[in-house]
Design a protein that fits this description.
The longest helix has 22 residues. The protein has one domain: NagB/RpiA/CoA transferase-like (Rossmann fold), CATH 3.40.50. The radius of gyration is 16 Å and the shape is globular. It is an alpha/beta fold and 205 residues long. The strands form 3 sheets. An 8-stranded mixed beta sheet has the order 6-3-2-1-7-10-11-12. Strands 4-5 form a two-stranded antiparallel sheet. Strands 8-9 form a two-stranded antiparallel ribbon. It has 5 helices and 12 strands. Strand 8 and strand 9 form a beta hairpin. The structure holds the ligand Nc1nc2c(c(=O)[nH]1)N(C=O)[C@@H](CNc1ccc(C(=O)N[C@@H](CCC(=O)O)C(=O)O)cc1)CN2 and adenosine-5'-triphosphate. One of its GO terms (molecular function) is ATP binding. InterPro entries: FTHF_cligase (IPR002698), FTHF_cligase-like_sf (IPR024185), NagB/RpiA_transferase-like (IPR037171). Belongs to the 5-formyltetrahydrofolate cyclo-ligase family. It catalyses: (6S)-5-formyl-5,6,7,8-tetrahydrofolate + ATP = (6R)-5,10-methenyltetrahydrofolate + ADP + phosphate.
Length: 205
């Protein structure tokens, strides 16, 4: 049952989400491309990423960090990639993407791997998850798009390091968090690398 505290939390999230998505919209395509390039170059160097067998990414929507060149590079290097497949209200699974031409239209217009070309991968096989979202805080707080998809999925992926790639303006002092909200471990922007809640990173932060 939803109590008053939940209602207040949902309202606080909704206000911050609206503000953050508006900030993302004013970023020009050129700025986005440039920032995406530098953020992806940095994540490729992370030792947790280099060591990962199975990496979960997402097929970017128009205003998100462009992960396509990074995804192409990982596939060219023979790495195992999985992407979200929405399976119901607030639920998703990870499906293997064997190559870029196996992307098809999915729910909400987000590209997803063709089910005839890649299988569902158990969440516990995933080593690194690149987590999308609207706003993040340095203590690992995350505000998503409001579907609760990652809040439900991340706890099932018990072996995965949760890595956020974000534009620097998406880092805010605090994100309203409830008990069900999943936190992240590492945040990388074009300007900063943040290790959250004492998560140990081999690299200098
Ligand atoms: N690229 C990418 N893929 C992702 C996410 C993401 O943030 N980015 N997700 C991160 O969770 C999940 C999808 N989450 C979503 C949450 C809300 C809406 C959305 O447009 N909601 C509409 C209402 C739609 C409806 O209910 O009919 C809205 O809010 O207006 C879309 C995707 C899984 N895949
Ligand atoms: N583990 C969970 N089990 C059940 N309901 C959940 C869970 N996590 C979140 N929810 C519910 O899902 C709804 C959306 O949650 P929230 O606003 O935190 O999503 P979000 O993290 O922004 O979304 P996303 O992960 O899709 O980007 C809320 O009503 C929340 O109570």
């Amino acid at each position: 049952m939803r109590c008053v505290a939940d209602e207040i939390l949902a309202e606080q999230k909704s206000i911050l989400r609206r503000e953050m998505l508006a900030r993302r919209r004013v970023f020009s395509a050129e700025e986005r491309k440039e920032a995406s390039r530098s953020i992806c170059a940095r994540v490729a160097q992370l030792s947790v990423l280099k060591a990962a067998q199975t990496i979960m990414l997402y097929a970017s929507m128009a205003e998100e960090i462009d992960l396509v060149p990074f995804m192409e590079k990982l596939l060219a290097d023979g790495r195992r990639i999985v992407l979200p497949e929405i399976t119901g209200r607030g639920t998703m699974e990870a499906r293997e993407l064997p190559s870029m031409d196996a992307l098809t239209d999915g729910v909400f217009g987000i590209a997803t791997p063709d089910p005839t070309r890649g299988s569902i991968v158990p969440p516990e096989e995933i080593d690194v998850i690149i987590v999308p979202g609207a706003a993040f805080s340095s203590d690992g707080g995350r505000l998503g798009l409001g579907g609760g998809y990652y809040d439900r999925f991340l706890p099932r992926a018990g072996n995965a390091v949760r890595v956020v790639l974000a534009f620097d303006f998406q880092i805010v002092p605090a994100v309203p968090m409830g008990v069900q909200d999943a936190r992240v471990d590492v945040i990388l922007t074009e300007r900063r690398m943040i290790s959250c809640n004492g998560y140990y990173l081999e690299e200098e932060v």
